[in-house]
Amino acid sequence: MKKAGYARNAVSARLAEMSFSRRELAGSLGDLGTFLPLTLGVSAVCGLDFGRTLVFAGACNVATGLMFRTPMCVQPMKAIATLAIAQQLSADQVMTAGLITGIAVFLLALFGVISRLAGAIPEPVVAGIQLGLAAQLVLSVVRMSFLDRGFIGLDGWGAALVALLLLWVLVNNKLVPGALVVFIIGLGMAGAHAFDGAALPTRSSGVAPGSISSFDGAVWRTAATQISLTVTNSVLAVCALSARLFPDRPAPARKVALSVGAMNLAGFVLGGQPMCHGAGGLSGQYGFGARTAGSMVLLGGVKIVCGLLFSSCLFHLLSAFPRSMLGVMLLFSSFELTKSVWRQPAYIDLATCLITAGTMFSFGAGYGLAVGVAAGMLYRQMYLNRRNVNATQPVGAQT
Fold it and tell me: What is the pLDDT of residue 293?
């Protein structure tokens, strides 16, 4: 009884800290540019049930909102979703890759490895990872909103420019949040095309929990790629960004990693798509107005209701959502990620940051982390050696 009372008091105290304003609702939309394409793609190609995925993602949003004091996003695991769509993996394989990733991250957190990594990896390297992610997001925007699209049309890049202008004009408007306006316009445009008799993606038949028979080579390769991205972006980068945006309530690395691990253990059992947190999602939600965990509880509640009551209809509607507008929303997510770069105090730190970003953009998060740490150590040692040499020279010999 005492434990139940303590839990109720803790939940009540956390809810009291939250805001459920229009700004928080608009902020909750900041990660839709990532969430919708990946979720719809995995549902259509791999056979994961869209309604089940929405309900599971919504439950994760609510749990995350109660666990953290910041608008910590919940998004599909990018590497798993991308490779699953490209290789047409089965739903069992997708969930098994998420299970392997979840177990790995959970163990890293349980034994304190994540916390030591967070303390040992230099800030310029983490900033470089965020910059590399921002560059990847911008490239995704170019592909999503401008390539192979004409200027004219509801999903042309002319519409993308109008959406970008709306977001820019309304970015600080507390009465009319820009993200909410763009999303409502996009839904209206989607509704005009979703049910006009055109061919629509086939909704999955509904797949329940994962199968332990799915541990094959493709699954292990997919999981290995995702683990490096999860450690760098979903834990280290998101914690660094959280500390910058919310210095009074930063998210601890161990807690974030445990959350990622728990979500994917539960996802395998319940049949949900692999989920994680992410620096891009957090920056997008912050940029669109989210300041408390109330935005995540609002978003989670909407996802649960839609997944339970309107999943089939919503699948068709969101499949027609203009990709140009999703791309513009994704572009705004990248702006906040670049701010850490210009805070680097020395040219050495900036060089390390740029090398890390370039390597991550070209070869992946794991390589970016390794090369960034090595470059930072090398530059720092060269700087210290040069300073020691100058300090030992006679005053008259220094130039």
Answer: 92
Average pLDDT over residues 248-273: 92
> What are the residue boundaries of the structural domains of the chain, listed by start?
11-199+214-344
Q: Is-contact 279 130, C-beta < 8 A?
A: yes
- The helix/strand/coil state of 255 is helix
> Where are the alpha helices (H) located in the chain, listed in sequence order?
2-16, 22-27, 32-46, 50-67, 78-87, 91-110, 113-120, 123-145, 157-169, 178-194, 217-229, 238-245, 253-270, 279-287, 294-309, 311-319, 323-337, 347-363, 365-392
Distance of CA 105 to the CA centre of its chain: 16
Residue 55 pLDDT: 93
Chain centroid to Cα 264, Å, comes to 15
pLDDT of residue 132: 82
Q: Look up tokens 């869209």; give the residue.
A: 50
Residue 344: band (very low, low, confident or very high) from pLDDT cuts 50, 70, 90: low
Helix (H) or strand (E) holding 76: strand 75-76
Answer whether 0.85 is exceeded by the pTM. Answer: no
Adjacent-strand bridge partners of 333: none
Can you read off the two tokens belonging to residue 96? 């098994």
Q: What is the spatial distance between Cα 33 and Cα 326, in angstroms, rounded to a whole number? A: 5
